[in-house]
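Protocol step 4 of 6: structure prediction from sequence.
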Amino acid sequence: MKRTLGRTIAIAVAAAGIALTNTSAYADGSNVTAYTQQDSSGTSGGEVTFKPYGEHLYIVDDVKNGESVVAHMQYGSKDQWWFNSEGAGTTRHLNFDIAEGTEVAIAACRGHWKGSVAKSEIWACGVWKVTTA
């Protein structure tokens, strides 16, 4: 009887552990950071980071050069451009609602904001980085 009770308790503890593991909130992907292409002096100028847990995008302008840092983001059927035009030393934060398991791709670019994405100039996009929300 002790042996059966011991097995029953062990199975119950294992099942509870599995249940807790499967119900906890987590993102499948890892944080990714993309950088703008370097200019002639070797400076990238900025970076874009996507954090899958909570779906946060950070657009960081690192260099005082009169340019904006631009995030190019694709997920699902969306193809979006987001500017940080506030100047050097600033970070623009955006929070999204993206379904878990959705592939998210980001690239960081440089540009000049002119009131709308359609009127703005965008260039010097770096390498795409991909993760899963």
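Step 5 (inspection) to follow. The first strand starts at residue 32 and ends at 35.
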